[in-house]
Automatic annotation (TrEMBL):
UniProt-recorded name of the protein: Sodium-dependent transporter
Family matches, as Pfam families: SNF
Entry's localization field: Membrane
Transmembrane segments: 7-28, 40-64, 85-106, 153-172, 184-204, 224-248, 260-283, 315-342, 354-377, 397-415, 436-455
Keyword Signal: no
Keywords, alphabetical: Membrane, Transmembrane, Transmembrane helix, Transport
Keyword Nucleus recorded: no
Membrane topology: Multi-pass membrane protein
CDD domains reported for this sequence: SLC6sbd_Tyt1-Like
Length: 458
């Protein structure tokens, strides 16, 4: 049963779709990948990959969703009844749910740090904090991270708060919930990014940070850097998760898919670039450029070290963790919607019932993910905590498999002319764009994504 929900406006459509792509992958993964892969050389490759790989694959997913107006499984059942292609959609739904289970934990950490910033407790690290050595500051905020996010009870409480916030928004539906939230939160996110970028560019060593980020050293380009740039483009655009198929099923039929894909990709790219402009001048100015900028270390250790050395420490900290909470919320809402749409479409559930069926098990699964980093850390799967195992399995294996399969299906097995008609809205004038997109989807994207998959596995 095709869903009847639709986004109510072009702005809302773009805001919601950009919100589904912009998230924690842009805020903390991009700076870490840039730092470890040669700076500007990686940025250049990443931009190329977004246009060569990201937009064509996004168009393939948009065409599936908008054309069939169904969930990630239903689109394949409608186009190829009796065939096994629906398994591709099922894997996408499972992957998005697994990612959602540990993303909720990270969202809870973000809420905790925002609260600790508001109360000032995050910066109660003793006298002389601003003048302490980088090593001393690092030790202090590492201790704070251990205290706030690697214990048992408090992280679960904050995760549950974020689950309830998500549930409240999702219960309001596509227009009154997802679209309205996106219309409010996405402008807030961009305004905060602009503010932080302005502050970062005014720092004493901003030019040195920008040199690393924007002046490419082509000798840094290696096969590993190319694969990592492909992976970042793939992850930051939310490809292979079922999100873009689900959200595009809410697009009005007259939506111009190519224009929408380019707009979403450019805005997503803009967020990543602005994060680089924010991070690298700051870490260079405060002598933190040799720090590990990966994941939790960047957000919960390095950036508080930056804020404590700036005037108005608490103010900047509150703003940043507000920004991060917005990114986390748009990510978790879009991930949850994939499963909710499936439950509504496949089982004829009311939206309220589908929301509860999807969200209630997360109160257990997300708690287990959180506990796996604390008291249950000794219980591992393939040598990994449950949190890391789900992250590795979903993001490094399942998502590339879904993306490869989607490209092969749309390039070779979808009904004849379906992709072309959806991509061009039946307009013969715009069909000249179809052939290069089809070529990428048929030949280029599967090979490049397979390279990512093999690199991650081996």
């Amino acid at each position: 049963m095709a869903t009847k929900a639709q986004f109510g406006s072009k702005i809302g459509l773009i805001a919601a779709t950009v919100g589904s792509a912009v998230g924690l992958g842009n805020i903390w993964r991009f700076p870490a990948e840039t730092q470890s892969n040669g700076g500007a050389a990686f940025l250049l490759l990443y931009i190329v990959c977004v246009f060569i790989l990201g937009i064509p694959v996004m168009l393939a997913e948009f065409s599936l969703g908008r054309g069939c107006r169904s969930d990630a499984v239903g689109v394949f059942r409608l186009l190829s009844p009796g065939k096994k292609w629906w398994i591709v959609g099922a894997v996408a739904i499972l992957a998005s749910y697994l990612i959602l289970s540990f993303y909720m934990v990270v969202a809870g950490w973000t809420a905790e740090y925002l609260w600790q910033s508001v109360t000032g407790a995050l910066y109660e690290v003793g006298p002389g904090a601003a003048s302490a050595s980088p090593e001393a500051l690092d030790a202090r905020f590492q201790g704070k991270m251990q205290e706030y996010i690697l214990t048992d009870v408090r992280p679960i409480v904050m995760t549950y708060i974020m689950l309830l916030v998500n549930l409240g928004i999702l219960l309001m539906g596509v227009r009154k919930g997802i679209e309205k939230m996106s219309n409010i939160l996405m402008p807030v996110l961009f305004l905060l990014l602009l503010l932080f970028a302005g502050v970062s560019l005014s720092l004493p060593k901003a030019s040195e940070g920008l040199e690393f980020f924007l002046n490419p050293d082509f000798s840094k380009i290696t096969p590993t850097v190319v694969v990592n740039a492909l992976g970042q483009a793939f992850f930051s655009l939310s490809l292979g998760m079922g999100i873009l198929v689900t959200y595009s099923s809410y697009f009005p039929k007259e939506t111009k898919l190519t224009k929408t894909a380019v707009t979403v990709s450019l805005l997503d790219l803009l967020v990543a670039i602005m994060m680089g402009i924010i991070i690298f001048p700051a870490v260079k100015t405060f002598g933190l450029d040799n720090h590990d900028l990966a994941g939790t270390a960047l957000v919960f250790v390095t950036l508080p070290e930056v804020f404590v050395q700036m005037p108005w420490t608490q103010f900047w900290s509150i703003l940043f963790f507000t920004l991060l909470l917005v990114a986390a919320l748009t990510s978790t809402i879009s991930l949850a919607e994939v499963s909710i749409a499936f439950m509504q479409s496949r089982f004829g559930m009311k939206r309220s019932t589908a929301c509860l069926v999807v969200m209630l098990p997360l109160f257990v699964l997300s708690a287990l993910c959180s506990l796996s980093l604390g008291s249950l850390s000794s219980f591992t799967i393939a040598g990994l905590t449950l949190f890391d195992f789900l992250d590795n399995t979903a993001t490094n294996i399942m998502l590339p498999l879904v993306a490869i399969s989607t490209c092969i299906y749309m390039g070779w097995f979808a009904p004849k002319k379906y992709f072309r008609e959806e991509l061009t809205n039946g307009n013969a004038v715009s069909r000249r764009f179809y052939k290069p997109v089809l070529f990428v989807v048929r030949y280029v994207a599967p090979v490049l994504i397979a390279a990512i998959l093999l690199a991650k596995i081996f």
